[in-house]
């Protein structure tokens, strides 16, 4: 698979477009100005203070700065790094502890924080609170076993190591060197935490567009094209420091007469990704409506609706639209970064074999998503339930901030 990344600075925003075989498959957007939400980015680490405990939901609220209270799962208290303890219970009001933002603010919801810290590199993740040595399931089985054997000696009681998919293209010594760097970073942060005051930000996550480059799969990457000179300089500094071997992928595109958005139709792709309607080649379409609690996707036959000569024709036509809708729904979920609970209302099928084929096809398309997306089931009302891991705000929320 051929991959490309485009990075633009337009309309007061930095937008990153991921292309696979010349199709835009992901869009991420962040404000240049930096509002209050951008201050609390995924991965930021703070010394917070417990402001409230709600036992009936097993949660606490932790203040990471004045007036910013974040949801905290009480289970995390088992591995908490306290900088000040107010009582003998596992967690008490007034306790000060190290927390990391695990989910950014969404609409009216404040960020979620965790005491299980993670330090992410290109090839590995160090996980405080989870002490196992794990390997990405997307790495071939034989290579997974080799990695587990290679790094089994790193097991300890404080943290674990997860080997990322990118490691399959790296030399073992490169992976080991990065793990040592992550260990040093973790130990240094724990030491510093003991000498800092409450509300201190111990670690600021890199800007979203840098984090995107850090996390992307480099296999098949042909180029990373930046359409702004200042942005190019900043990204080049990152590559020189963190990915010098990939520096030749970085390209500056600076043609004011034919800008990047014209060359790759990025503006058109963005407008379509923010639209409620997504057309299918068969003439049908999807209606995509995010709500506070979940996202609903409705499949419509649209222009494909016509008089059928038999019941079999009706079933075959519905299945054809549904199969294309399954492929497009999976694409739109990734493109728009939809997450949480997603309900898809496909066109009704009367044949059990057709339904099984639809679900199998949809499941296979969801499996291509680099973020975990799971087809749960089809309800009695014929709605297909999907869950997708929440990592960052969906595109429509990012564009509003």
TrEMBL record:
Question: What UniProt keywords are attached to this protein's entry?
Answer: Hydrolase, Magnesium, Metal-binding, RNA-binding
Give the source's domain of life in one word.
Answer: Bacteria
One Pfam family matching this protein:
RNase_E_G
GO BP terms: namely:
rRNA processing
- What does this protein need as cofactor? Mg(2+)
Q: Which InterPro entries match?
A: NA-bd_OB-fold (IPR012340), RNA-bd_AU-1/RNase_E/G (IPR019307), RNase_E/G (IPR004659), S1_domain (IPR003029)
Q: What GO annotations for molecular function exist for this entry? A: hydrolase activity; metal ion binding; RNA binding; RNA nuclease activity
> What CDD domains does the record point to?
S1_RNase_E
Keyword Metal-binding listed: yes
Offer a single GO CC term for the protein.
cytoplasm
The S1 motif domain, residue ranges: 43-122
Tell whether Magnesium is among the UniProt keywords. Answer: yes
Protein name as it appears in the record = Ribonuclease E/G
